[in-house]
Amino acid sequence: MTQYRKKPVVIEAVQFDGTIQMAMTLHKQYGDTPITDPDTDAYLGAVIVETLAGGVVVSKDDWILTGVKNERYPCKPDIFEATYDEV
After folding, report:
1. Which residues touch 11 (CB under 8 Å, ≥6 apart)?
2. Of 1, 20, 48, 68, which has the maximum CB count within 10 A?
3. What is the pLDDT of residues 33-87, one digit of tens each?
4. Which residues contact 49 (CB under 8 A, 6 or more apart)?
5. Do residues 58 and 75 make contact, with C-beta atoms less than 8 angstroms apart?
């Protein structure tokens, strides 16, 4: 099996803080959907981010990455820390 290394490309990233304010900002900016309780309509601290593979739940402290072709995808904090350095 051949090994590969990621090319050094710069991406944009934001860490989701779980607040309704950030959820609404993401909704307005990207159309992400805040997750609410179906019975009470109470905000549950997460959003659905549309990715190339469909909607994915992003929870508090997850990162939302925007790739080189403006694709968006979530990343768990431990993976983000192991993979990315701030530039």
Report:
1. 65, 66, 67, 68, 84
2. 48
3. 999 999 999 999 999 999 999 999 999 999 999 999 999 999 999 999 999 999 8
4. 26, 30, 32, 55, 56, 57, 58, 64, 72, 73, 74
5. no
Q: Are 50 and 32 in contact (CB under 8 A)?
A: yes
The label of the residue with tokens 């944009």 reads 12
CB 34 within 8 A of CB 23: yes
Could you tell me the two tokens for 81? 């820390």
At 31, which helix (H) or strand (E)? none
The residue type of 77 is P
Which sign, positive or negative, has the C-alpha torsion 8, 10, 15, 20?
negative
